[in-house]
Write a structure and sequence with these properties.
The chain contains 7 helices and 3 strands; from the N terminus they run ααααβααββα. By secondary structure, the chain is mainly alpha-helical. The chain has 2 domains: 60 residues, no CATH class; 76 residues, Arc Repressor Mutant, subunit A. A hairpin with a 2-residue loop joins strand 2 and strand 3. Helix 4 packs across helix 5, helix 4 crosses helix 6 and helix 5 packs across helix 6. The chain starts with 11 loop residues before the first helix and ends with a helix. This is CRP-like cAMP-binding protein. One of its GO terms (biological process) is regulation of DNA-templated transcription. Keywords: DNA-binding, Transcription, Transcription regulation.
Length: 153
């Protein structure tokens, strides 16, 4: 599971190599999107300036993916949850301040590679530190900069 935000592409690898899409998509906020079929996307990529930008974009995503895999392997659940919430906040925040993310705890657990019980405990710590508030299928980031400092150790 990963987070994408404004300007990101979904399904681009399958469109380029003609393979099957490997993921499904759920939106955390309202969005506007554009559908471009594989053959049209490949034709679009034939433009040199587009291909160069797409390559840089793809390499950035690969680095993010490597970083997230490293986090899964070495960081405790609390740190992974804090970092995930920062990513979700950054993707969803329209303005500075509070951001409410509508996400079941089980989905957050899958995102950070932990059990739901471990995520519940981590959320309790972050709630006690007054970085977040939680409710049914919702997490509100109360103090984004504090959460960011907590996530970065």
């Amino acid at each position: 599971m990963t987070v994408r935000s404004a300007g990101d592409l979904i399904g681009d690898i399958a469109a380029v190599d003609g393979g099957q899409r490997s993921a499904s998509v759920s939106a955390l906020t309202a969005l506007t999107c554009r559908l471009l079929r594989g053959p049209d996307f490949r034709l679009f990529l034939e433009r040199r300036e587009v291909a160069t930008g797409f390559a840089r974009y793809t390499f950035r995503r690969l680095r993010e993916s490597d970083s997230q895999r490293t986090e899964l392997a070495v960081l405790p659940v609390l740190d992974r949850v804090a970092r995930a919430l920062v990513r979700l906040h950054d993707a969803a925040a329209i303005e500075r301040g509070r951001t409410t993310i509508f996400l079941p705890q089980q989905d957050l657990a899958e995102f950070v590679g932990a059990s739901r019980n471990a995520v519940v405990l981590a959320l309790g710590v972050l709630r006690a530190e007054r970085f977040i508030d939680t409710g049914r299928r919702r997490i509100t980031i109360l103090e984004a900069e504090g959460l960011r400092r907590r996530a970065n150790g």
